[in-house]
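Sample 3 of the quickstart, ligand flavin-adenine dinucleotide:
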Amino acid sequence: MRCVVDNTLKFKEKLEEYLEDCELIINEPLKNHTTFKVGGTADLFAIPNNYEDIIRMIDFCKKNKMKYYVLGNGSNVLVRDAGYRGLIIKTSHLNEIKVQGKYVIAQCGAELKDVAKICTKHSLTGFEFACGIPGSIGGAIAMNAGAYDGEMKDIVEECVVIDDELKIKTLSREQLELSYRNSAIQKYGYIALEVKIKLDNGDNKNIKEKVEDLTNRREEKQPLDVQSAGSTFKRAPGHYTGKLIQDSGLKGYSIGGAQISNKHAGFVINKGDATANDILNLIGHIQKVVKENYDVELEPEVRIIGEE
Ligand SMILES: Cc1cc2nc3c(=O)[nH]c(=O)nc-3n(C[C@H](O)[C@H](O)[C@H](O)COP(=O)(O)OP(=O)(O)OC[C@H]3O[C@@H](n4cnc5c(N)ncnc54)[C@H](O)[C@@H]3O)c2cc1C
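Result:
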């Protein structure tokens, strides 16, 4: 144990020498950075203030064979209880949003709700679908987030990324290979730095009404007052996942502090004292029961990280 901490401290000191404007934290609890609010600590944790420091961090990690992981708002990530042996890079300080005519350019850490507010202020329509998704735009492009009548794929024009050779380059919509909850960013391990979306001029009153309507629909159907990562599983082709779970008689079923929401069976929630293990066991139980009942394999949408 002692040896691991000494080693982490050595890495921290060495890496901080390379960085221009970022301090590193040792043993940061990741439950403070995910909406599930569970999981262990990260050996090293950073919130960079510029793109160059991200490149320096990854370069250092690659050279020193250290793992790294980019975290946006942590609204689709489950961290295992044993934590993450490597560097977590959280994007929340990179959150500028600019409007240029019908284009909105947002840095990766900008929250979708803030982008939506700016779109409304400028009477730009097309982004309303994302107003209630509690993620960052970097996480949304990586996951091709979508809701109701829209998804990122419909509005993205281009995205500036760090590629696998640590070069900054701009990817077109086609190059982003956006598909259901997937993208080139996930596939090739790129890091999204800046997302440019193209919207239409709209009527301010209509935009506000649509945002309000979608917010009400979300509040009515989803357990937004408790901790979760949204829909736990991807949509199974030809099925509504929530219905498969509900029809299996699992609504309200719990393991430890993890429960299948009584409001929406597609959501696994943390009742307050769940461990990541409770959530993982519940995910496994749902998969087993749904497979037995309907011969459907449910794939988690939530990204699971950390030591097993
Ligand atoms: C209550 C609730 C409701 C939700 N509703 C929806 C919904 O309607 N539709 C929907 O699609 N999702 C929904 N989600 C899930 C989640 O909010 C989205 O997937 C969101 O886009 C994730 O963004 P994030 O910043 O939180 O990403 P994180 O959870 O931090 O990360 C998700 C993935 O993206 C990667 N990532 C994050 N930032 C970057 C970056 N800059 N570059 C490269 N990779 C990156 C991470 O490594 C990880 O693999 C919901 C979640 C909750 C809690």
